[in-house]
Amino acid sequence: MELTQIRLLVSDFPAVYRFYRDVLGLKPQFEAEGGPYAKLSPDTGHAAIALQDRAQMADVLGRLGAEPEGYRALVVLRVDDLDAAHAEFTSRGAEFTRDPGPMGDRMRVAYLDDPEGNLIELQEWLVLREPAADGPA
């Protein structure tokens, strides 16, 4: 078995597509702003996010016709410099629901929503600090 992608079902395909392409800077496999499907990837790594028009999928699975309530997905993207990514995405129109801050001692995170209300977490992994030595033995 191989995981090929995580697909988000969206109602306003063009708005969500532009958000992931233009605001977050993910690269589309092919230009498909009108949908009904697109796969977008960061510059590094193997993971990808796919977008699927909800109405098209509702034709296949009728239960998908109703709009979802609350968060349905948490998209996690690792960045090397969280403050720089926060500034860059903000300059492109992103509105963060939580600015960069610590999450434990292993990472810093920030949160924003895409146009459909899917939650996005940006992570910056921190180097674990060695406990301070008590002095020479």
Automatic annotation (TrEMBL):
UniProt organism field: Streptomyces griseocarneus
Alphabetical list of InterPro entries matching this protein: Glyas_Bleomycin-R_OHBP_Dase (IPR029068), Glyas_Fos-R_dOase_dom (IPR004360), MMCE/EMCE_epimerase (IPR051785), VOC_core (IPR037523)
PANTHER family the UniProt entry points to: METHYLMALONYL-COA EPIMERASE, RING-CLEAVING DIOXYGENASE-RELATED
Keywords associated with the record: Metal-binding
VOC domain mapped to chain residues: 2-125
A Pfam short name: Glyoxalase
CDD domains cross-referenced by the UniProt entry: VOC_like
UniProt protein name: VOC family protein
Domain of life: Bacteria
Cited PROSITE patterns: VOC (PS51819)
SUPFAM superfamilies xrefs: Glyoxalase/Bleomycin resistance protein/Dihydroxybiphenyl dioxygenase
